[in-house]
Design a protein that fits this description.
The protein has helices spanning 2-11, 13-51, 63-68, 84-91. It is mainly alpha-helical and 96 residues long. The chain starts with a helix and ends in a 5-residue tail after the last helix.
Length: 96
Amino acid sequence: MLRVAWKSVLGNKLRLALTGLAIVIGVSFVSGTFVLTDSIERAFTGLLTDINAGVDGSVRPSTDSLQTAQGPPGSFAVPTFSSPRSAAAQIHPEMS
């Protein structure tokens, strides 16, 4: 059985070479993808660390406002007021 398999492999040398080449290319692409994603992640982490180096605090919308927003994620509704007095009443109810 081993003799028949070996004879078949040696009889199809081009197929053997192309199969080996396909395996080498596939492993190279997979390892290259891991290296590339790790490099990109490290670059963005360093970039964001440098950008936020001198920041003591930041203002971000709450998760509640993001969930109740009408529109794409990250957007929030902007209230419209008919007059400055109604705006003050909605912002500071104790003033009305």
